[in-house]
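Researcher:
Attend to token order:
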Amino acid sequence: MKCDLCHQEFGLSHSCPGAFSPAAQLLLADDAPPPLNGGPIYYLGEAWKIARWDDVAIRRNAKDPRATFFSIVFWLIATLLVTLISTLPLLTRRAPNTRPAVFLFVLIFALIFSVLAIALVTFLQLTLCHAIAKWFFGAKGKFIEVMRPLLLGWFVNCLTLIPVAGTLLAAIAWTAVLMMVFEEVDEISRLQAFGISAGINLCIFVLEVAFLPAFHL
């Protein structure tokens, strides 16, 4: 049931706080616009909501042009964090006596290469998922609208840094975020969104396993 005065949903009993102001009603609505002066802290909060499958936050950031810049920045930070923590121990073990200047040069080169590789994989993944949703399931969203919440929520892939189970946890979390975004933005069914997300993730994982030995340091 819904209260006619405050418009809140309730069960058997309800303590009505009275009518909300127009501003408060707008904040409670699904289509509440993002703040015009939202900064990094605001979009960090939005990224956390997206990672927790908040459908309202997904739809809000999909339509928010300001989210484009912050989504790319947050994706870059998360990617650098993953690659740095993964690459640094490898370089340290393989070249323990390397001069600092040479070590720094190799580290920077490795980070740039890794970030570019992840960027390519991420772009191909999102493009394929969106294209399949468009071609076969009549998806209605735009690619940029899909990209914004997905790049904001990409930081769930930092779970790969957890020893042993990290890769599996990251795959599950990322598949869930993909599924929710394609369901909400492209307006396809949850089962279709899950099938696309899980299928593309599995294909990319197989390719990574197949080609990863070629890039060992």
